[in-house]
Description:
By secondary structure, the chain is an alpha/beta fold.
Amino acid sequence: MPDLFRLLNPKSLAVIGGGAWGEAVLTQAKKFGxxxxxxxxxxxxxxxxxxxxxxxxxxxxxxPDAAFVGINREAxxxxxxxxxxxxxxxxxxxxxxxxxxxxxxxxxTDAQARLLKAAGDMPILGPNCYGFINALDGVAVWPxxxxxxxxxxxxxxxxxxxxxSINMTMQTRGLPxxxxxxxGNQAQTTQADIALxxxxxxxxxxxxxxxxxxxxxxxxxxxxxxxxxxSVPLVALKxxxxxxxxAATISHTASLAGGDTAAQAFLDRLGILRSPDLPSFLExxxxxxxxxxxxxxxxxxxxxxxxxxxxxxxxxxxxxxxxPELTIEQKQSxxxxxxxxxxxxxxxxxxxxIWRDEDAxxxxxxxxxxxxxxxxxxxxxxxxxxxxxASDWACATNAALRMRKATGxxxxxxxxxxxxxxxxxxxxxxxxxxxxxxxxxxxxxxVEAASRxxxxxxxxxxxxxxxxxxxxxxxxxxxxxxxxxFDLSVPKAIQTNHSAIxxxxxxxxxxxxxxxxxxxxxxxxxxLDCNSRAEVRDAMDSMxxxxxxxxxxxxxxxxxxxxGVTQDPAHGYLLTIGAGxxxxxxxxxxxSVLIPSTPEDIKQAxxxxxxxxxLTGYRGAAPCNLDAITDAILAVQSYVVAQNxxxxxxxxxxxxxxxxxxxxxxxxxxxxx
Length: 673
């Protein structure tokens, strides 16, 4: 991994290329108060942007710690090679036309390979990127305007998109951005590499990652482990839907576990929080900067309007957040502060009886910030400062600040509309340790993310292999035989033709299944409860297109689960657990984890299923054997791990779960021969 310290904290900066972009880098560096030495490099010009220009980097008075290379693709490769030979600290490669453009220009991949060879072990950002802003040290290697301000501590934001990075710097939400770094097409230095380096800066309070794709999963695993050890939260804005490995959805699992299910499972595995959109991403980072991860999902809400209280309650209903009922002590304290005319509840509408009474507001609000509450929301929209007098709202700002100081509990002021949280007020609140949320919807997304239990990153790497090719689907008999070798319980069965040879080895009743059919139950390929040889023969005769059959002893009734594994091209093997049987896709009740997963991971996934109460004794029914269920799922996982990439897909559906056992009533395997 390249050492990024010199590049991100340069004492000297060289700009190579005297066009408008290069001049803008020097202008922005000076404007941001850069205290290091600036150099300009141009083969003809003697100066630009007021800085003396040298004909080449080899003519500079010193070896620069950082360089912005703002010249064309081919010239960039030569400049980077000269920088590397001088032992420079690193470079930002602004030019495009490398691997990111290989679809339009086949020479782009070769150009990128030559750039990497030229760079060697000297770190480069990009190519096709704007560079970075280090607002902690006053460094801007950036060819455009930006909205960053100098800060003493703050969050780091990493993205491949230069345009989105500019937009984020322009936010007026009061979020202190310590680093804004663009990675371009990540030819050498990836987002994970950059974030790993930033974890060594104690001024970084949280790291936000706008992710288009993960690439090398091991780097992300290393990042998650280091971030966990340093207690620095990571937040992802993951975009794009990876193409699932399945070309033909012969199983239910393939259709249920498509899209970015595997990406979410990977983030969960690493303990990385996820935001659904850009505003929520920024609000989540803001919450984490001020308060860190929340202890639970128990919140309280305060507003001076019944309409706002109802709005908060209704919007929160769509999130994994709870409003605990007020304790007796809270009700007593609130009654003393608010009097008899206020209905005491959480969310609390405190009316306007105490408005402008800062002491009373502080007392009432502090009561809501009880020790068992993870975060208290004060709903407060400020007037427009261009046509209104906002002086009346100072009492509320002060009450929130005093409340935070008095209780020591996490407190947030929430403007329901993002534009009604003025930036100066946000800065004042944040200085006092109060989270200034801009937008109720964004705030609730942030609170939900920050309150979600974070997994300790798995010590085992994700099982990722090249996609299985030239695959064949095993017969049910062969699939069950293969899985039984890894201790999955299966019914006693025979594989036969119309002669039903071997039937005497089974105990009636049996089930007859036609071989060679996908989704057999949908096309009449399954006949249950055959109680004699004659009924077996009748069942076979009814399946006019079948020549071979799988006949097995009937399983006892029980709760039905689906256990499936699919091979995701970007994230490895995805293990999906869900409601099984013929209603699998209709119910769409699934949870997914990546292989390998521990017994604890699997049990947690089971608890998140909507059908979990059916496994634990719903309405007086006998509970299923959860250990047997877990062992069955682990058996499927063990089979996949042992095949070393030959498996494309496995499905057990249903896994019939009872108080005694978990038995695979049907199984499918698609793999290389």
